[in-house]
Amino acid sequence: MLAHLLEGPKHGYALKKQAGSVFARPELHNNLVYPLLRRFTSEGWVARKSAPGERGQTRQQYALTAAGRRALLERLNTFGEKEAESTEEFLLRVGLFELLEPIARERILDVRRRVLARRQQHFERLRQMEMGAYGNEVVNFLQQRVKNEMEWLQRIRRLSLQQSSTQRVQNSARFKRERVAAAHGARSAS
């Protein structure tokens, strides 16, 4: 939910719908959304203010604070074996890779790759067992999913490296422009 506020302030209902869409649901339940928003507000991660609604009513609008952005980045950067076991935790971070430093992206991809490699080994052991036609189909399906994700990880890694390289070039060009402008300003002042 904090990530949805990166785009700007939103009403609780809009957050409820957007957060639900991430989980392939029409919307999240009020009993989940509003207690989270209260907690985020009390932590200082989200600011709340009253704003006029479309039909004259007063609605609450929520905005991410600087502390909320730091908390979000800290949570995204926290990615160990436990988080890597969860496909949802992993996909959330990949979806927000643009917020993370290249080294953090690489670490997240490496941890997930290790988890997938262990799963692949587990499925190989299962293949040695007699599980019947349907059991074997399930193992084959799960192995294919792991293989597909391993290939996808390589594509994400390449995309991340390309983006990092592009950012370095842009930062270098910006730094050169700023240096030239500063030198020009110093000459003009003298």
Give a quick summary of the entry.
With about 190 residues, the protein is mainly alpha-helical. It has helices at about 10-20, 30-45, 65-75, 80-85, 85-95, 100-125, 130-190, and strands at about 10, 45-50, 60-65.
Q: Biggest sheet, in brief? A: 3 strands, antiparallel
Helix content: over 70%
- By DSSP (H or I, 4+ residues per run), the number of helices equals 7
Separation of the first and last Cα atoms: 53 Å
Whole-number mean pLDDT: 86
Shape designation? globular
Count of discrete domains:
2
Helix/strand-derived category reads mainly alpha
Describe the protein in words.
This protein has about 190 residues and is mainly α. The chain folds into two domains: about 70 residues, Orthogonal Bundle (Arc Repressor Mutant, subunit A); about 110 residues. It has seven helices and three strands. A three-stranded antiparallel sheet has the order 1-3-2. It is globular. The model has no long low-confidence stretch (mean pLDDT about 85).
